[in-house]
């Protein structure tokens, strides 16, 4: 049952996605313009209230909404481009930070080796000092 519901939801998403793209296309806009003005030529509103209803319901809902959808899609495309640019910048900076970290780790290893060498020399010198004092006596 769960698999069937998943398939149904996937089907609904695919249909909704395709309809959303199609409904906000300029082709639909021009078809609606032709149908709207064609209906006005056949049966024009007879009073101010009729024209108000025509302008609000037909023009705004039928014609302006596809335009708003197109603008929304363009904004979405710009946002995707901006997000991609931000991602690329961040990933480049992460690469630089990794390189700096690797260089610092290498430098730290070299410094540890030098400290170890200095300590070994110091221990060797400290071992010599008692030996030299015993020879001086």
Mean pLDDT across all amino acids: 83
Overall structural class, as computed from helix and strand content, comes to mainly alpha
For the secondary structure, the number of strands is: 0
Silhouette: rod-shaped
Give the DSSP E fraction (strand runs of 2 or more residues). under 5%
Distance between the termini: 98 Å
How many alpha or pi helices? 3
- Quaternary structure annotation: single chain
Task: Write the element-wise H/E pattern from the N-terminal end onward.
Answer: HHH
* Major pleated sheet: none
Radius of gyration: 38 Å
Q: What is the percent of helical residues?
A: over 70%
Q: In terms of per-residue confidence, which ranges show pLDDT below 50 for 5 or more consecutive residues?
A: none
List the helices and strands and how they pair.
Layout: H1 2-23, H2 26-42, H3 48-136
Description:
The chain has 137 residues and is mainly α. The protein is 93% helix and 0% strand. It is built from three helices and no strands. The protein has helices at 2-23, 26-42, 48-136. The model has no long low-confidence stretch (mean pLDDT 83).
């Amino acid at each position: 049952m769960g698999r069937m519901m998943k398939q149904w939801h996937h089907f609904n998403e695919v249909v909704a996605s395709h309809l959303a793209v199609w409904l906000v296309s300029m082709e639909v806009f021009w078809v609606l313009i032709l149908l709207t003005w064609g209906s006005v030529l056949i049966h024009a509103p007879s009073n101010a209230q009729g024209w108000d209803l025509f302008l609000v319901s037909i023009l705004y809902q039928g014609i302006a909404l596809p335009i708003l959808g197109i603008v929304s899609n363009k904004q979405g495309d710009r946002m995707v481009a901006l997000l991609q640019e931000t991602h690329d910048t961040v990933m480049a900076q992460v690469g630089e930070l990794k390189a700096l970290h690797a260089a610092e780790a290498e430098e730290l290893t070299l410094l540890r080796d030098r400290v170890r060498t200095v300590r070994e020399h110091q221990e060797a010198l400290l071992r010599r000092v008692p030996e030299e004092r015993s020879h001086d006596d």
